[in-house]
Design a protein that fits this description.
heterodimer; A: about 110 residues; mainly beta; seven-stranded mixed beta sheet; four-stranded antiparallel beta sheet; about 55% strand; B: about 110 residues; six-stranded mixed beta sheet; 11 strands; globular
Amino acid sequence: NAGVTQTPKFRVLKTGQSMTLLCAQDMNHEYMYWYRQDPGMGLRLIHYSVGEGTTAKGEVPDGYNVSRLKKQNFLLGLESAAPSQTSVYFCASIRRGAGQAFFGQGTRLTVV
Amino acid sequence: EDQVTQSPEALRLQEGESSSLNCSYTVSGLRGLFWYRQDPGKGPEFLFTLYSAGEEKEKERLKATLTKKESFLHITAPKPEDSATYLCAALPNFGNEKLTFGTGTRLTIIP
């Protein structure tokens, strides 16, 4: 049982490049979340999903897009990366009604 | 707007010196209040869930409590291995699934 797996773990992008971060969970959880974590800022919610085919904006959605085509996967896309998107990205999943979030190990993204 | 505020930002304690971390929250109805531990370079690790005012949960040297406006994480006789960043998060009532985190308290236990 792997829990929540994020791919890749590290990535360096040039300004303007695009990429997709993958989050996969094998716990059949309904809710999935993408956060970014910056020094002194805590975990800030980018986008989230309450079920397959549905997504919603969080606190800092600009510059990001997401998709949840399958219940177990939640993709975070950067269409045109900017240095301000340098951060550590965490994915989390929650079973409806339970509340406890399970986190992936994070993706460290650097945009130069 | 839902808000979670943690204090202090950083705390240094001598080994064995007990203290408390604070988490105050403003959400549209509280479904659950969560505490996590995060070590450098890793994802947050779940510690406790609290659902209603007056509830308490304990695990080793940690005890979490909840009131209608805030939660406390009490650390009794801490050891160096308790050094980490402690995060709290609030999940509002059904219909609003945003899990909102505070900025965390960075705890350092000095041997």
